[in-house]
Automatic annotation (TrEMBL):
Residues 249-266 have a biased composition (Basic residues). Residues 7-200 form the Leucine-rich repeat and WD repeat-containing protein 1 LRR domain. One of its GO terms (cellular component) is chromosome, telomeric region. Its main location: nucleus. Belongs to the LRWD1 family. It comes from the Eukaryota. This is Leucine-rich repeat and WD repeat-containing protein 1.
Length: 670
């Protein structure tokens, strides 16, 4: 029986009412309401309702026909909403809030801005200017791209005299192709872009070409309603891996040297080439193991992070050269995979149907396996859109616990290198939390506790503990700058603001703290490598020389002491992050064309270690660029490949490339 009755609606009206048609404001918050409780027949009698509060309930979606023609203000905070497209039934809506719905993302914000033409306030912010851009400029750009795609690839495929079957076939092929190949804006909005592209393409076929659309031609893939988690054995996981064909002519050693866009003297060129190790690398495997619903047609799931597993017999916190295996954990979409880089075998697969995983991290815990016996085990932490950290005992194929760390998505996680139970989580709620995850007993009972909360002024994207003082200082690259916090636990203050904000050169020749830092890592004990998505530059700077200029005990803006700048792509695509291989002195960063830029900086780091080391005026070119091979899927070339992340093992034997097209590519140095 529905929880909502006529009597309840009259009672919860503000002010209380005697007739449904007279109600203008209605408060239905904190009633544990589910979607089935919203009866369209009853709500259709609220003809003059203008303000509706549905906050703090259990709604996962809206019925499609609530029939509230005059609704202007809607509050859906603290529910479980997974989709916003049903809100288009409220065309007069002016104010909308849906904060703390863990499944909603930035893509959903853009969808409601497009669907609701009168919307002015979204989650308390004036979105008038941005919404106009989304509805007009964005739509014009995408329409132009969709039209061009038809003209270039499909116009000549449709005969003048065509049958219904030919129309249906060309329609299906065009809709699939245009959603895959038309790209616009940042990768963080790729879901919204695909949604709009499909909509525009359907309108284009129906209006411009007079083709009647069959809306069932390509069924939307629905979210798995089974929300239980699952782990798979190697044989089961192997069956989920799609096959991607590599054109043989392209599959050869890549020894190409980059050509610098800047003029260099012969002596400079020779010196650079003499400093660089001649690396030969070839692609071993291209794996499609993160597909939604194990679909081999999925080339949309984005892969975000990868971390190599530590070797137990060497100790996870000893010399990194001898403490890593050839097994890498990767994440993206609804799954986390463990892959043997040499064989390309998916050893294990862990899946949560309602999750989108953004980050993974390893630690090694000494666990009690019997009354008197203890043994070291590797534990994998995985987190993402739901703000929950999953703790996985990989050897046992068992997710033994979870930490509800944040109410908003977690962008990245990392373990302390000195305290194996200490885990940092960085969230879209603009906070970085330090957790003690505890050590599970033989029955997997454990107790997690929050130790610190670090306040940021924007979303933290990347974390890096300072190698010389990992228990005292944490660096974070954020949407609006690079900051440092004092994380020493002997201080009484649990909630802490940042201690230092770092300034970097801007495009006008000045210094600024306001820039998005989407790549951050240490190259050695002192040299920091940071990347800004705009203007797409990579800086190397000294942590000690920068931080030492700050007065002790106060919050301060300090200028980063720049050592050098790396020549990189001119793209402004965000979230194409970098990584380092400290033992070999390498920096890696992918680009918007599927290429991997590699920088051997081992000779440079020796010069920078000197206290007199100065900023190089010359932009350091990559030692080598590994080009993305020509991949074909069902005979069609796979294009528009963004490299979201690229990681190497500590010995730089393997490179794992994580892409925007649901492919994990593994290269091997030979």
């Amino acid at each position: 029986m529905s929880k909502i009755t006529t009597e309840l609606l009259l009672e919860r009206a503000v002010p209380k009412s005697t007739r449904l048609r007279k109600i203008e404001t209605l408060n239905l918050s904190k009633l544990q309401l589910k979607t089935g409780d919203l009866d369209p027949r009853l709500f259709s009698r609220l003809r003059h309702l203008q303000k509706l509060d549905l906050s703090d309930n259990l709604l996962d979606k809206f019925p499609n026909s609530l029939n509230l023609p005059d609704l202007r203000v809607l509050n859906c905070n603290n529910n479980k909403l997974e989709d916003v497209t049903a809100l288009k039934q409220f065309p007069l809506l002016e104010e909308l809030t849906y904060e703390n719905n863990m499944f909603l993302t930035l893509n959903d914000d853009y969808k409601v801005m497009f669907l609701l033409q009168n919307l002015r306030l979204l989650n308390g912010k004036d979105i008038t200017k941005l919404a106009n851009h989304v509805r007009n400029v964005n739509s014009l750009k995408l329409t132009s791209k969709v039209t061009a795609h038809w003209e270039k690839f499909f116009r000549d495929q449709l005969p003048e005299k065509h049958t219904a079957e030919q129309v249906k076939a060309i329609q299906k092929k065009f809709l699939k192709s245009v959603q895959t190949n038309v790209v616009y804006g940042p990768s963080s909005l790729s879901e919204f872009t695909r949604w709009r592209v499909k909509m525009i393409a359907e309108e284009f076929l129906a209006c411009s070409l007079g083709l009647e659309l069959n809306t069932n031609a390509e069924l939307e893939e629905e979210m798995d309603e089974d929300k239980e988690e699952s782990t798979k054995s190697p044989s089961e996981a192997a069956g989920d891996v799609g096959q991607v064909t590599v054109t043989p002519s392209k599959r050869k050693r890549n020894n190409s040297k980059p050509s610098s866009s800047k003029k260099r003297s012969k002596s400079q060129a020779n010196a650079e080439e003499g400093d660089a190790e001649d690396v030969s690398a070839e692609p071993l495997h291209f794996l499609q193991c993160h597909s939604k619903g194990n679909s081999r047609e999925d080339f949309k799931t984005e892969l975000w992070a990868g971390v190599f597993e530590p070797l137990l017999d060497s100790g996870a916190r000893k010399d990194p050269i001898v403490s890593s295996s050839r097994t890498v954990a990767t994440c993206g979409g609804e799954s986390v995979c463990l892959i043997d880089c040499e064989t390309g075998t998916v050893l294990k697969k862990y899946k949560v149907a309602t999750e989108v995983f953004f980050s993974v991290a390893w630690t090694t815990l000494t666990m009690t396996i019997s009354s008197s016996q203890k043994k070291s085990h590797n534990i994998l932490a995985a987190a993402g859109r739901r703000g929950i950290v999953k703790l996985i005992h990989v050897a046992a194929d068992f997710c033994y616990g979870e930490i509800k760390a944040h109410k908003k998505p977690i962008a990245t996680v990392c373990f302390s290198p000195t305290r194996e139970t200490h885990l940092f989580t960085a969230s879209y709620d603009k906070r970085i939390a330090l957790w003690d995850i505890g050590i599970p007993d033989c029955d997997y009972n454990f107790k997690a506790s929050q130790l610190l909360v670090l306040e940021a002024i924007s979303i933290p994207l990347r974390l890096a503990l300072v190698p010389t003082s990992p228990e005292q200082y944490l660096l974070a690259g954020c949407e609006d700058g690079c900051f440092a916090w004092n994380i020493k636990l002997d201080k009484k203050q649990k909630n802490r603001p940042f201690e230092a904000a770092f300034q970097f050169p801007d495009e006008d020749g000045g210094m600024t703290t306001s820039h998005s830092v989407d790549g951050l890592a240490f190259l050695n004990d002192d040299v920091v490598v940071s990347k800004s998505s705009k203007p797409g530059c990579i800086y190397l700077w000294s942590w000690s020389r920068s931080f030492d200029t700050k007065e002790k005990g106060c919050q301060q803006t300090v200028s980063a002491v720049i050592l050098a700048e790396l020549e990189w792509s001119t793209t402004d695509h965000p979230y194409l992050t970098l990584s380092t291989c400290p033992a070999k002195g390498y920096v890696f960063c992918g680009d918007e064309k599927g290429s991997i830029w590699m920088y051997n900086l081992s000779n440079h780091t020796r010069a920078w270690s000197s206290a007199k080391g100065k900023h190089s005026d010359r932009c350091i070119p990559p030692t080598q660029i590994l080009k993305w091979p020509e991949l074909r899927v069902a005979g069609e070339q796979l294009s528009e490949v963004l490299v979201n992340n690229v990681v190497s093992d500590p010995t730089f034997t393997y490179l794992v490339v994580l892409t925007s097209v649901n492919i994990a590519a593994i290269w091997k140095k030979s």
